[in-house]
Write a structure and sequence with these properties.
Elements (H helix, E strand, L loop, with lengths): L13 H7 L3 E4 L6 H4 L8 E10 L5 E14 L6 E15 L16 E4 L6 H12 L40
Parallel strand pairs: 4-5
Antiparallel strand pairs: 1-2, 2-3, 3-4
């Protein structure tokens, strides 16, 4: 499909897309992804998206999603700009209802079950996948996360009890 036939911010029908059999690819400006905008640093990132329609062994509609690019994030420790490289690949199998998803297949590692939505767009789909993959705290190279005081030691909720002194003068030390 050319960019004119499937626009990233227009309604996306995965079933019709799979029926068409045509691959779509294009750039999506990260600054236009509203739920992601508050996590981005000022500056342009790049997101390239490629959608490949498929059918699985049960003839269900599948969209193979490829995302690549970079996003400007903010280091939570020093508040400097950090560039996060995006490289995602997802196989999305589309279902009309939760009941249609076979329970034994929910744990399948090779794909993600997705429900068809009325207001689905390619940009919304891309934004959801990025939010799921986004690091909780993208720390820059010059900042390091402090090591735990218990690093390398077994952690037990009863560890502090070893330092307790009892009323009878006894101690666990």
């Amino acid at each position: 499909m050319s960019d004119g036939e499937l626009l990233p911010f227009a309604r996306f029908d995965p079933i019709a897309f799979v029926r068409s059999g045509a691959v779509w690819e294009g750039n999506i400006p990260p600054t236009r992804l509203e739920r992601l905008a508050d996590r981005l640093a000022i500056g342009e990132g790049t997101l390239f998206c490629r959608l490949v329609p498929e059918r699985d062994h049960a003839q269900r509609a599948v969209t193979h999603l490829f995302l690549s690019g970079s996003l400007p994030l903010i280091c939570p420790r020093c508040l400097k700009r950090v560039t996060w490289s995006v490289a995602l690949e997802r196989r999305l199998v589309w279902f009309r209802s939760e009941k249609a998803i076979p329970p034994e297949e929910l744990e399948e590692e090779g794909w993600d079950a997705r429900l068809l939505e009325e207001d689905l767009t390619v940009a919304g789909l891309v934004e959801e996948e990025i939010l799921l993959a986004l690091p909780i705290g993208a720390v820059c190279a010059s900042c390091t996360i402090p090591a735990s005081p218990h690093a390398g030691k077994p952690i037990s909720p009863f560890m502090d009890l070893t330092q307790v002194e009892f009323d009878d003068g006894c101690s666990t030390k």
